[in-house]
Specification:
By secondary structure, this protein is mainly α. It has a single domain, classed as E3-binding domain (Dihydrolipoamide Transferase), CATH 4.10.320.10. Helix content is 42%, strand content 0%. It contains 3 helices and no strands. Helix 2 runs parallel beside helix 3. It starts with a helix and ends with a helix.
């Protein structure tokens, strides 16, 4: 297991795709509830992890709120 895989497991983050670093569980839930394609969101967390604040920023720019 790589250091990154270990970090994902410790932080209960979604498994990354080939082109994306991953998403925190709360951020993923908010994105899905608001029908956002989370893989298109640029993450600001460690190793590019998408955080709640990243999803909320996208929603704010779109005029939506979770």
């Amino acid at each position: 297991m790589s250091e990154f895989d270990d970090w994902l497991k410790r932080n209960n983050a979604a498994r990354p795709s080939e082109n994306h670093q991953g998403i925190a569980p709360l951020a993923k839930r908010i994105a899905e509830e608001n029908h956002l394609e989370w893989r298109s969101i640029k993450g600001t967390g460690e190793a590019g992890l998408i955080l709640e604040k990243d999803v909320l920023m996208v929603l704010a720019k779109q005029g939506k709120r979770s």
